[in-house]
Write a structure and sequence with these properties.
It is built from 18 helices and six strands. The strands form two sheets. The chain has a three-stranded antiparallel β-sheet with strand order 1-2-3, with no helix packed on it. Strands 4-5-6 form a three-stranded antiparallel β-sheet. The chain starts with 5 loop residues before the first strand and ends in a 27-residue tail after the last helix. The model has no long low-confidence stretch (mean pLDDT 95). It folds into three domains: 49 residues, no CATH class; 210 residues, Citrate Synthase, domain 1 (Orthogonal Bundle); 102 residues, Cytochrome p450-Terp, domain 2 (Orthogonal Bundle), CATH 1.10.230.10. It is mostly helical and 430 residues long. The longest helix has 26 residues. It binds acetyl coenzyme *A. The site of acetyl coenzyme *A has 19 residues, from helix 17.
Length: 430
């Protein structure tokens, strides 16, 4: 048997045969264009709705083995980063490829700390949003509102300029998220305090002067939030990372690209799932009601939120880590009884052929909402917290895309199935 890294393809319409190179376990889609039925034929395309089997880029940031339940950033296992790193250190790792040394880390933290204050126009924009409104919509708009404040951000080919915008965005998103949270609750804004640390400052801006102020100052809560930020930092070419790259591929500035990525995250099949998980657990109400609920969920019409994943066909390692954090956080903030419903649901589902045969396991969103709620976040804030965390990943994906000579403007093909040419008929004659 030959072991050449090629794929031999025969087009049975014409009898043409070609040997296509296989590189990195992948065949270039452009290779298929050579298969034509006539000279004016466009050539064979590949069809892949939802990009289920299409690699849109080469990347060195995140590696997932969905069958084995493994997630690594720049080679480092997520379990080690979550337990030992900080969010800003992991952000540096994603953006630079290596962990920083002590000096680099200190300088990095300091330079981000300098940029946490928002331009007045952005704070003003947030203050015009409807009280009680959805904070994710506010977040998306406020990130976009940074764009006109920094017109130089459009110079995306300039590396130094890019690095500055990246630092500014990383510094700004916690402030934006906290301002949106406080606007929603009609609470006075708490401005960032220099030198207090990324997570501690974020929690202060969110909860200072509220009944959760003391809880938010607990060391275990700060550490839990840091871990949750790290756990959500990147997940290779998911829906929102793809949006970030697609928008950025047109040369759009990173503020506008990131606003688009955050919008993609907001949907219930992506970052909006943990809100729905909580609603679902509340609707189930008690562990005893779980079997009934699961029976109904198997009719194919509804989904168990927080279950299933496009890539993980095994346990999501992030869900496993969050599960182990839950009790520690409850000790500090009080118990969230929904945990019993969640545990029973996981247990029953993983003992049920419907879920096991489809390889549906709890994903990162299954337990994160329970933790967020226990800390004091309303469900509407869950996607915003996800967006703050994922910002480093989006920026790393964007930077990699801009620096990649092989990347082009993202512009898929289609299979046109609409009408042939026909003549316009004025409205009076129709
Ligand atoms: N509950 C019940 N059945 C499910 C679920 C679920 N959560 N997820 C998938 N299935 C079933 C489907 O009905 C389908 O069954 P069938 O083969 O009998 O038709 C089969 O499993 C495959 O489902 P697909 O939709 O093809 O899987 P896909 O990879 O496209 O979807 C997704 C992945 C969107 C995450 C899906 O599992 C889902 O909707 N889960 C619930 C929402 C959720 O938790 N999203 C968060 C994802 S993690 C993140 O974004 C951070």
């Amino acid at each position: 048997m030959s072991h050449q890294s090629t794929l031999t393809v025969t087009d049975n319409r014409t009898g043409d045969t070609a040997e296509l190179p296989i590189e990195n376990g992948t065949v270039s889609a452009m290779e298929f264009r050579q298969f034509k039925t006539s000279d004016d034929d466009f050539g064979l395309k590949v069809y892949d709705p939802g990009f289920k089997n299409t690699a849109s880029t080469k990347s060195a940031i995140t590696w997932i083995d969905g069958e084995a339940g493994i997630l690594r950033h720049r080679g480092y296992p997520i379990e080690q980063l979550a337990k030992q790193s900080t969010y800003l250190e992991s952000a540096w790792l994603l953006l630079h490829g290596e962990l920083p040394d002590a000096d680099e880390l200190q300088t990095w933290e300091g330079r981000i700390d300098e940029l946490t204050l928002l331009p007045e126009s952005v704070a003003d924009t947030i203050s015009t949003f409807r009280i009680g409104g959805d904070p994710m919509g506010m977040f998306v708009s406020a990130v976009a509102a940074l764009s006109p404040c920094h017109p130089e951000a459009g110079e995306v080919e300039d590396g130094e300029n890019r690095a500055l915008q990246i630092r500014r965005i990383l510094a700004s998103v916690p402030t934006i998220a906290a301002f949106c949270f406080r606007r929603r609750g009609d609470l006075p804004l708490v401005y960032p305090e220099r030198g207090s640390g990324f997570v501690a400052n974020f929690l202060e801006m969110l909860f200072a002067g509220t009944e959760r102020e003391a809880v938010a100052r607990e060391a275990s809560v700060r550490r839990a939030v840091e871990m949750l930020l790290i756990l959500h930092i990147d997940h290779e070419q998911n829906c929102s990372a793809n949006a970030m790259r697609a928008i950025g591929s047109s040369g759009a500035d990173p503020y506008l690209s990131l606003a688009g990525a955050a919008a993609a995250l907001s949907g219930p099949l992506h970052g909006g799932a943990n809100q729905r998980v909580l609603r679902m657990l509340e609707a189930i109400g008690s562990p005893d009601a779980v079997p009934d609920f699961l029976e109904k969920a198997k009719d194919g019409k509804r989904r168990v939120m927080g279950f299933g994943h496009r890539v993980y066909k095994n346990r999501d390692p992030r869900a496993e880590i969050i599960k182990t954090m839950v009790e520690e956080v409850f000790d500090a903030v009080g118990r969230n009884e929904l945990i019993e419903v969640a545990r029973r649901l996981e247990e029953e589902a993983l003992d049920d052929d419907y879920f096991t045969s489809r390889k549906l396991y709890p994903n990162v969103d299954f337990y994160s909402g329970i933790l967020y709620q226990a800390i004091g976040f309303p469900a509407a804030m869950f996607p915003v917290l996800f967006a703050v965390a994922r910002t480093a990943g989006w920026l790393a994906q964007w930077q990699e895309m801009v620096e990649d000579d092989e990347q082009k403007i993202a512009r898929p093909r289609q299979i046109y199935l609409g009408p042939d040419k026909r003549d316009y008929v004025p409205v009076k004659e129709r």
